[in-house]
Amino acid sequence: MNTKVGVSKPIYDVRAVNNIKELVYGATKLYKNNVAFRYKNENSKDFIDVTYAQLEHDLNCLGTALFNLGLHNKRISIIGNNSYWWVLGYLATVCGTRNCSSN
Hints:
two-stranded antiparallel ribbon; globular; alpha+beta
């Protein structure tokens, strides 16, 4: 709750999260079919929408692949341009793994 003088309640309802993993998977539960990311395809210049459900699937698959490569509890650096693929790599490393199954 905001403790500034004259403010007695939050302006918006806010759900409590303890870590980024809860934030990502909670957003998927709430906004499964909403667009989480939009990026431009480098070849066709068309925009590609990624829903929260697709993001969760992609990060689970990448996280599982990293685990299967023996990278569990290892330090991983992610270097690259700001992109969906960078965010996916970051989230897969910090969120760990879940079972990767096809949609």
